[in-house]
Amino acid sequence: MNTTAGRARLDLFLISFLILFFELAAIRWFGATVVFLTFFTNIVLLACFLGMSVGLMAAGRRQNFIRAVLPLTALTATLALATLGLYEQWAAKVTIDLGSQQASPRLIYFGAEYRPADPSRWVIPIWAVGGVFFALIAITFVGLGQAMGRAFDAIADRVAAYTLDVCGSLCGIAAFAAISYLELPPIAWFIPLVALTLYLADWRRPQLFAAGCVLVIAGFSSLGMLEKAQISWSPYYKVAYQPATGSIVTNNIAHQSMQAISATGPAYLMPHVMNRDAGGKPFGDVLIIGAGSGNDVAAALRAGARHVDAVEIDPRIREIGREAHPDKPYADPRVSAHIDDGRSFVRRSSIAGSERRYDLVVYALVDSLVLHSGYSSLRLENFLFTREAFEDVKKTLKPDGVFVMYNFYRQGWVVGRLAAMAEQVFGSKPIVISAPYQENIRPQDRVEQITFLMVAPDAARLQGIRAAFGRQGNLWLSADPKANDAMNGFRPRPPDGGGQWARIAPALVELTGQELLPSDDWPQLYLRDKAIPWAPIGQGMLTIALLSIAIVLLFAPVRRVRPNAQMFFLGAGFMLLETKGVVHMALLFGSTWVVNSVVFAAILLMILVANLYVLKVTPRRLLPYYALLVAALLVNALVPMSVFLSLAPWMRIVASCTVVFLPIFFAGVIFAAVFRDSRQPDVDFGSNVAGIVLGGLSEQLSLVVGFNYLIFVAIGYYLLSLLTSRMAKS
């Protein structure tokens, strides 16, 4: 590679763009292709960081690792597609085990239970699958990190070089955000990857081979077009829609199915039918969170709703419903569709003075199959199931309004946790109904059937429904949709004659041991205890740690290079700052891809500001900045999120940006000042990136301590960076 100053600056900008763009593309594509890796996309993120770190420290090696980037990308992508094909074609023989398929899992992953462990199957643990792809992706990124390290070495002004790096990363985020907004397929993702890698590798004859490898990858990624399903890429999922059945599959896991309400029986209408049969008037104003392709919207309209606010986070799924749902619910003038995060919409509706108040609020089969970003273990719906979220729902209801949530909750302790949280917030016991009937729901029970929870702030509001069950004992529902009229499917007794009829009646939910309830700081509905489950998370962390050591020993010149401990701990602390910032902003402004993109861009902009500050002020003593950083982090940790949620919208923005981005500014000043004086920029930057891997693994501690107290872990890392810097000078 030509390392003249001008070429080095251009190379650094382009490689920074490419690394960030490739990282985001890898998180999306591998999460959507390797079955169940979507639940652990931070494996891909950490692999990218590890590879970049090792490559930076290997900048001085004679081998030109960037020439292996495209062949390795082709190999890894081909293996990913082969894994998917193996899983789909050998469905009767292969199970990928998340450690959540036992009788009583500690952590639930929706979709993972469809192929239970079976002695006759090949059981492949997810940590093994994740480990293979972690290693391959990390090795792929070694070449990109090496190119970055060589560009850094060729630029004498370290802060200016770091500024170029941040600018390139900002452009990478902007480019991938544009691709996400336009919902472009993966073939568009690989074009800049091919072009930039070929330029940076400076290949000649191998260029056609490398380009062909990646074009094959892009072609493979679009093979779904040849199947019966229509494949599209939303900002969250690979979405496969099968017109023949109306089913929607996301990231290769069954997600939802569109059917005419008259053909599905009264399941979607259950709250409306019970309300009617108890003598209540039809729900007039209805809010549906997780409206999806429109089944619940169609049910509310059929039941006589006056107006429906339908909130769905994924634009492509809503669009499929608008175009193809048999009942055309989104075309009804009574429906207002909103592409938004459910919690964010509910909070805005709950603000005093808002005109939005509802007779019925429904959480409609709310369960995502993806993390809300690669920087945390949160799923898209986590912040919907907290005490604070239920408080927001309560504020949106009219005085006689009703809140309903339903799903296949899998475990009795999840149902009990929801019932306990609803009773605590609303002040009345919810009606819990499973279909088919289950008399008792205990924490240790499997709950494989659909379960409804209905609660109201006015305890008398549900008395009519309780009284109806008291008079007749139970209702009956036909298992055959053709035996039911859509609004008259429940009957006081099963009719004489054929058909299978299911009993519908309230269940007794055991609340013993349900003291641990999700909160905005610990939004873990599907985690039974405050602990890091050994399977699969503990196994995965150990696998990543061991593979990281092996890759470092294999590629980094560990005998000649001494890592920078101060930079290492700065990286670990900064990763936790990013995680806390993303989670904080997701809670306040929504867990959407747009919010995530804006937050990442804002973090990089704050780093640019810190660089400019260092160039202008040239700080020499860093102890005051460490003190300011720790003080700002303590404010982050000790001020509860409820304080921000209670502020007026403009004050919430100002306060949140201050507490999130001020620590990032101080951390940026410390990093830029240390990097300014670096004698080995490739090694020092590589050490910093390696620390990011440690910070990413440390994020799992939030499962135990919550997100606020995760800040104290970050403080510990920053204090270690200060201590190691002083030890190095002594």
Structural features, described:
With 730 residues, the protein is α/β, with parallel strands linked by helices. Helix content is 54%, strand content 12%. It has three domains: 1-182 and 186-221 and 533-560, no CATH class; 263-509, 3-Layer(aba) Sandwich (Rossmann fold); 562-730. The protein has a seven-stranded mixed sheet, sandwiched between helices. Strands 3-4-5-6 form a four-stranded antiparallel sheet, with helices on both faces. The mean pLDDT is 86.
- By CATH, the superfamily of the largest domain comes out as Vaccinia Virus protein VP39
**Radius of gyration, rounded?**
27 Å
Highest CATH level, the class of the largest domain = Alpha Beta
The count of strands amounts to 20
Which architecture of the largest domain per CATH?
3-Layer(aba) Sandwich
Q: What is the share of helical residues? A: 40-55%
**Biggest sheet: strand arrangement:** 9-8-7-10-11-16-13
Largest sheet geometry: 7 strands, mixed
User: Separation of termini?
Assistant: 39 Å
Mean pLDDT: 86
Task: Return the structural class.
Answer: alpha/beta
What is the domain tally?
3
Overall 3D form: globular
Features:
Rossmann fold, 12% strand, 20 strands, single chain, alpha/beta, 7-stranded mixed β-sheet, 4-stranded antiparallel β-sheet
Question: What's the quick description here?
Answer:
This protein is α/β, with parallel strands linked by helices. The strands form six sheets. Strands 9-8-7-10-11-16-13 form a seven-stranded mixed beta sheet, with helices on both faces. Helix 1 packs antiparallel against helix 2 (42-57).
